[in-house]
């Protein structure tokens, strides 16, 4: 969680440097020698990187620094693209169809139509892929050609090189505000304190500055204090870095650097030191406020850390992709069965009827009419396979890509209602994976992080507990007091008791002495309370206080600093000592750095930056109250405590980790006193207190922790310890040994730290408020109204988690929450079963079930089995009954495990019992209808986001790791409501109808050809020419459904939000709906469009319409009108553009049939299917009466069907649509409902006139809400 802190850098400064004299003979020098002819070996465990100013050491060969994120080049584009396309079953199927269509012996169509359709789809996809890859090429070129400066170590001169030309072993110079071209080991900085500052936004999204330092080469020629501006090394210098092999770890590095050089006497010396991430400058990070650095290139190009982490998130496919796969496979099986039946009919007809007709010459066996029945059957089967290939619409796949792209990158990315304005900057929603658009409308489970996701991650100190006494007014907002009120005025407002104690110490001239010794001594540290608590006679006679006060007043060199034990103010003095202990701890024990930024007055202001918002809040609050952290160098820290400046030497920093749950700093005060300052989670700190800690103090502190928690405040416990010089020195030797180790360094440091972080004196507790984001309570209420099960997963204590759950309306009744805790597997089984009984009882009473699970209890549940009970399944069964679940004190790994457990439970529940096939189909149906969604903002949420079906990242203050691994990114939690209820439902609605309609029109077309086989002896003769067939999908029916799929909507956006119950109710693309409306209706319409024109054809006379191509064109135009009327019938959102293209798509067929034959003739083509047919057909009344009859039947049949549904079995959205049309829009009557008004306003839907308690609007006569924000189109 914390970045590398300054202290670890100071530790490295203080580590012993092992110099050893080496004799002059070459055999005693380092392994690398000037003039070496062989390349240095790279061991299996380490890679060796060398510095040799003489240039005689030949470098090893490593990867180029050029990067390549593009997928193709000119030579590889076509083969790679085609391989990617034809790895998909659908495209392989279409390729087979196109290939067979060129086999004239079996194909009823020309190969031109099928091939042209396939090529069209491939060209569209190729253009899309090519444009995307071209952008990558441009970005790669810009990156690879970025200039940087490489140093000649022999002369110190620099030359400009492109990034792509930088090699491992080069030494580069990077100036402020420049990116590092490769992963470097820092050799030298331009600052006097030997530090540099970097910003890692490109790496992990964090904008705060981090500290790095060079390897410790002080005293080595070329690295002196007066040599910071140049990098010129003596020829005797040799450097060797033993580095770990390239990996993805952004936070840890393991290496060892050793240098050999000649000192001023000519003796050869050698020094070596460990290298950690504190000395590494990773590619892509930015140098800030450091003038310049020199660095040794360690990893280049694809081996750099940023490129190692550039792997794409797991590829997820939408539910409709899975649905289509199943349906396409089913249709292929049906197609094969139909082809077998048709081929059998052809074979029977040939033998029984065909040979009777001598003019057909079926008794003459030639190509296409084979005597062998098996061969003949197989070839006819292929004929029918080609004829029925229109059952699977090839245009659907490219249309779906276009529609999903449009939905994601036009509608979602540019939705003005999901834009967060912050000052001059705005943050938009971002769709990173358009494959999942439809799944946004099918979410059943929402798994949410708390901090930064539900809360704003803007921490502010509200209260403190110092030695068991609570201070602070939660109504006082320190952040609002302003800079002019810093110091005593703010302290007085925060709590007058604190201000009084500080002033008493100042008046008695004790403050300076306390600062110099870094706080109170052990005798006072051990005391509980302060202030009035210590004013009783019994307390005043305690030897500890007497000794401390007497010693303090008589031996600190301050003759005026005197106080008697009997003084009535002694309690205030002791409280003052505790205040010093408290704020000194907070001002020293952190990993923040200071950055200067311009202020509005043209001056500079100091900004605290660090990876932990909690630390920033605490230190910022301290500054406001007069306890200021002023400056930090590699070895000391300067504080200004109530206008008295004091400096501490930083000896060690024991960094925070999620395992340790604490951070400690060992510092030496001005008078030489050494103290350990520690802060961390209560469960990690309380167990480390001294065994003789005052039990009453401990009880009060635990009460304070509980009270803070139920107020929803985040807590940290502070502890300190005075160390003897000898004690610290012995421990420090072990620590330095662990820090210098290359094997299990972190583990050894943690174990050594554990030995010193014990026997702490309790100092106090901080209570920080993390405010809920705007609109979170109403957002969660809306999600629950949409019948989603919402989980909040947090690391907070149970009381805090429950309180936040109540605040954000996740928990409705705090007193009725079911709490699950366990300390063993046996207890877990027992408690889960008891909780299930209680949940079932509440469900029978129709009462809400809300569950709280303790994170540590999950250790005994997930992956465990006890007495035949699989505990995680039992927990999932219990959680599935709950509308809301809170998991507290959870770890990042548990977050992903929870998602996995619930997904597996739902699949298992859906399978039920029965045979394998039925269980498999039920499971697939569940996968299509129900999805899980995880939302978070930090790196600890990445595993959960990737484990869920849909991952949403919040672009917050914990970096962009969550966003970079998500499918969709938003800037605030409340936007999730619009993302799911509006964009999710619309995407689901539109894509479902796109799929149904695409199959409907193709099935109808294909069955016209199949029905005709009854009348042509199952010969495979096509009724429609191949040009018309190709134009049917590509031109005549393509645009209306495309526009429908990006524009149509069943109800308005506001209705989706006002009526969350609409969410995921329709299931508009279930198996039954697909086969009824997409397949069966297509067969019926195909029958109408074939049989009516077939039997209505006039067989003779001047106006004959009985010819093959005449009947075919009549059926074709009849079908085109029928499917156009169908799309018009289901459309609910009409626009001028849509009406225009619907009319053009249908009317275009008439001039096409009239003009196209002449186009063919102009290129010397004569096509009997085209020339003269349309002219003759359009001049007959029979044709026009026939198609009008077809339209009356098809439209009338569908109109009656739809009217019946609207009247007697309407969907929910039909009811809402009728409400909209009959009322004054979707929001009519809303002003009568206070709660609904508040909810809609909180979600950004206008400024509703609030009703009064009587139900009337505030102005007394307003009938409707006053809406100031229009819904997005």
Automatic annotation (TrEMBL):
InterPro entries: ATPase_P-typ_cyto_dom_N (IPR023299), ATPase_P-typ_P_site (IPR018303), ATPase_P-typ_TM_dom_sf (IPR023298), ATPase_P-typ_transduc_dom_A_sf (IPR008250), HAD-like_sf (IPR036412), HAD_sf (IPR023214), P-type_ATPase_IV (IPR006539), P-type_ATPase_N (IPR032631)
Residues annotated as transmembrane: 72-94, 106-127, 328-349, 376-398, 1003-1024, 1030-1052, 1073-1096, 1108-1129, 1136-1158, 1178-1200
Record's compositionally biased regions (Basic and acidic residues): 8-29
Localization per Swiss-Prot or TrEMBL: Membrane
P-type ATPase N-terminal domain sequence ranges: 56-112
Location of region: Disordered: 1-39, 1249-1273
GO molecular function, one term: ATPase-coupled intramembrane lipid transporter activity
Name this protein carries in UniProt: Phospholipid-transporting ATPase
Enzyme class (EC, first level): translocase
Chief place of localization: membrane
Compositionally biased spans, kind Low complexity: 1253-1263
Binding-site list for Mg(2+): 449, 451, 937, 941
The P-type ATPase C-terminal domain, residue ranges: 963-1210
Recorded catalytic activity of this chain's protein: ATP + H2O + phospholipidSide 1 = ADP + phosphate + phospholipidSide 2
EC number: 7.6.2.1
Bias-annotated ranges (Polar residues): 1264-1273
Domain of life: Eukaryota
């Amino acid at each position: 969680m914390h970045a590398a802190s300054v202290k670890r850098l100071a530790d490295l400064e203080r580590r012993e440097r092992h110099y050893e004299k080496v004799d002059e003979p070459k055999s005693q020098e380092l392994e690398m020698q000037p003039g070496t002819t062989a390349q240095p070996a790279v061991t299996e465990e380490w890679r060796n990187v060398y510095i040799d100013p003489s240039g005689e050491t030949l470098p090893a060969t490593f990867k180029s620094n050029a990067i390549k994120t593009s997928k193709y080049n000119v030579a590889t584009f076509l083969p790679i693209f085609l391989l990617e396309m034809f790895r998909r079953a659908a495209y392989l199927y279409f390729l087979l169809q196109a290939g067979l269509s060129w086999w004239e012996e079996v194909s009823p169509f020309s190969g031109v139509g099928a091939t042209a359709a396939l090529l069209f789809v491939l060209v569209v996809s190729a253009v899309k892929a090519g444009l995307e890859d071209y952008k990558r090429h441009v970005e790669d070129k810009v990156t690879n050609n970025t200039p940087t400066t490489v140093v000649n170590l022999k002369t110190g001169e620099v030359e400009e090189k492109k990034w792509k030309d930088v090699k491992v072993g080069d030494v580069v110079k990077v100036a402020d505000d420049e990116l590092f071209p490769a992963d470097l080991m820092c050799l030298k900085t331009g600052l006097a304190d030997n530090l540099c500052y970097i910003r890692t936004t490109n790496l992990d999204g964090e904008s705060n500055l981090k500290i790095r330092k060079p390897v410790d080469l002080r005293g080595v020629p070329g690295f002196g204090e007066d040599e910071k501006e140049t990098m010129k090394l003596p020829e005797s210098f040799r450097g060797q870095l033993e580095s770990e092999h390239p990996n993805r770890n952004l936070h840890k590095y393991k290496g060892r650097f050793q240098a050999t050089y000649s000192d001023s006497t000519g003796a050869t010396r050698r020094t070596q030191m460990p290298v950690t991430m504190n000395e590494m400058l990773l590619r892509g990070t930015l140098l800030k406020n450091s003038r310049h650095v020199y660095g040794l290139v360690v990893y280049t190009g694809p081996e750099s850390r940023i490129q190692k982490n550039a792997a794409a998130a797991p590829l997820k496919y939408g539910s409709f992709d899975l649905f289509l796969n199943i349906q396409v496979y089913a249709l292929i099986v049906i197609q094969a069965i139909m082809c077998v039946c048709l081929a059998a009919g052809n074979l029977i007809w040939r033998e029984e009827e065909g040979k009777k007709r001598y003019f057909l010459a079926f008794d003459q066996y030639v190509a296409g009419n084979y005597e062998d029945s098996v061969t003949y059957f197989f070839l006819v089967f292929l004929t029918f396979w080609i004829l029925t290939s229109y059952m699977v619409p090839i245009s659907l796949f490219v249309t779906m890509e276009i529609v999903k792209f449009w939905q994601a990158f036009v509608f979602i990315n540019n939705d003005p209602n999901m834009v967060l304005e912050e000052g001059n900057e705005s943050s938009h929603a971002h769709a990173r994976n358009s494959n999942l658009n439809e799944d946004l409308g099918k979410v059943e489970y929402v798994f949410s992080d708390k901090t930064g996701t539900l809360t704003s991650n803007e921490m502010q100190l509200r209260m403190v507990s110092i030695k068991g006494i609570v201070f602070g007014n939660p109504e006082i907002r320190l952040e609002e007091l302003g800079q002019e009120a810093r110091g005593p005025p703010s302290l007085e407002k925060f709590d007058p008791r604190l201000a009084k104690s500080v002033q008493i110490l100042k008046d008695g001239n004790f403050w300076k002495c306390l600062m110099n010794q870094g706080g109170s001594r052990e005798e006072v540290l051990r005391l509980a309370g302060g202030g009035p608590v210590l004013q009783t006679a019994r307390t005043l006679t305690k030897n500890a206080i007497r000794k401390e006060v007497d010693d303090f007043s008589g031996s600190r060199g301050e003759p005026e600093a005197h106080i008697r034990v009997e003084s009535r103010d002694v309690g205030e003095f002791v409280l003052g000592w505790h205040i010093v202990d408290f704020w000194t701890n907070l001002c020293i024990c952190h990993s923040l750095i200071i950055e200067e930024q311009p202020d509005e007055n043209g001056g500079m202001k100091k900004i605290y930056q660090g990876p932990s918002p909690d630390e920033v809040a605490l230190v910022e609050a301290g500054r406001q109250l007069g306890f200021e952290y002023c400056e930090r160098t590699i070895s000391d820290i300067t504080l200004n405590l109530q206008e008295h400046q004091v400096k501490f030497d930083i000896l060690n920093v024991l960094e925070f980790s999620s395992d340790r749950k604490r951070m400690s700093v060992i510092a030496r005060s001005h008078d030489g006193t050494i103290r350990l300052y520690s802060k961390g989670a209560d469960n990690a700190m309380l167990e480390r207190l001294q065994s003789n800690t005052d039990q009453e103090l401990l009880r009060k502190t635990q009460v304070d922790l509980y009270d803070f928690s139920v107020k929803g405040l985040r807590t940290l416990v502070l502890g300190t310890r005075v160390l003897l010089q000898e004690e610290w020195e012995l421990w420090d030797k072990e620590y330095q040994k662990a820090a210098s180790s290359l094997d299990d360094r972190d583990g050894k440091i943690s174990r050594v730290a554990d030995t010193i972080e014990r026997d702490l004196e309790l100092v106090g507790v901080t209570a920080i408020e993390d405010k809920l984001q705007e609109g979170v309570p109403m957002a969660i209420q809306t999600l629950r109204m949409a019948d989603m099960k919402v989980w909040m997963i947090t690391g907070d204590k149970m009381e805090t988690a429950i309180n936040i759950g109540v605040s954000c309306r996740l928990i409705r009744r705090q007193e009725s929450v079911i709490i699950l805790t366990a300390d063993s597997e046996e207890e877990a089984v027992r408690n889960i079963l008891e909780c299930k009984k209680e949940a079932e009882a509440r469900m029978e009473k129709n009462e809400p079930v809300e569950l709280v699970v303790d994170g540590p209890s999950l250790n005994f549940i997930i992956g465990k089995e006890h007495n035949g009970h699989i505990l995680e399944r039992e927990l999932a069964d219990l959680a599935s009954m709950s509308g809301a679940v809170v998991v507290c004190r959870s770890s990042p790994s548990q977050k992903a495990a929870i998602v996995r457990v619930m997904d597996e439970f739902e699949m298992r529940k859906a399978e039920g019992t029965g045979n394998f096939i039925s269980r498999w189909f039920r499971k697939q149906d569940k996968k299509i209808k129900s999805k899980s969604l995880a939302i978070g903002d930090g790196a600890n949420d990445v595993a959960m986001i990737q484990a869920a079906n849909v991952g949403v990242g919040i672009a917050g203050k914990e970096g962009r790791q969550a966003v970079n691994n998500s499918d969709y990114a938003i800037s605030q939690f409340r936007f999730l409501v619009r993302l799911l209820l509006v964009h999710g439902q619309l995407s689901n609605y539109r894509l479902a109808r796109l799929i149904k309609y695409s199959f409907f029109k193709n099935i109808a077309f294909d069955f016209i050809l199949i029905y005709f086989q009854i009348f042509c002896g199952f010969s495979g003769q096509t009724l429609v020419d191949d040009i018309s067939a190709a134009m049917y999908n590509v031109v005549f029916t393509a645009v209306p459904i495309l526009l429908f799929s990006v524009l149509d909507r069943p109800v308005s956006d506001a209705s989706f939000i006002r009526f969350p119950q609409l969410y995921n109710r329709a299931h508009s693309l279930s198996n039954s709906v697909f086969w009824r409306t997409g397949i069966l209706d297509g067969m019926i319409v195909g029958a109408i469009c074939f049989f009516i024109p077939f039997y209505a054809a006039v067989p003779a006379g001047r106006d004959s319409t009985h010819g093959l191509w005449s009947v075919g064109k009549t059926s074709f135009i009849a079908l085109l009108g029928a499917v156009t009327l169908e799309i018009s019938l289901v459309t609910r959102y009409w626009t001028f553009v849509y009406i225009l293209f619907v009319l053009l798509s249908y009317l275009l067929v008439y001039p096409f049939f009239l003009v196209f034959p002449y186009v063919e003739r102009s290129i010397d083509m004569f096509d009997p299917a085209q020339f003269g047919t349309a002219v003759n057909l359009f001049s007959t009344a029979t044709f026009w009466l026939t198609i009008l009859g077809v339209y009356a039947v098809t439209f009338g049949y569908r109109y009656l069907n739809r009217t019946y549904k609207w009247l007697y079995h309407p969907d929910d959205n039909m009811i809402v649509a009728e409400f909209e049309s009959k009322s004054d829009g979707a929001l009519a009557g809303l002003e009568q409902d206070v709660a609904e008004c508040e909810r809609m306003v909180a979600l950004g839907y206008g400024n509703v006139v609030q009703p009064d308690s009587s139900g009337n609007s505030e102005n007394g006569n307003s009938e409707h809400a006053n809406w100031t924000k229009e819904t997005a189109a």
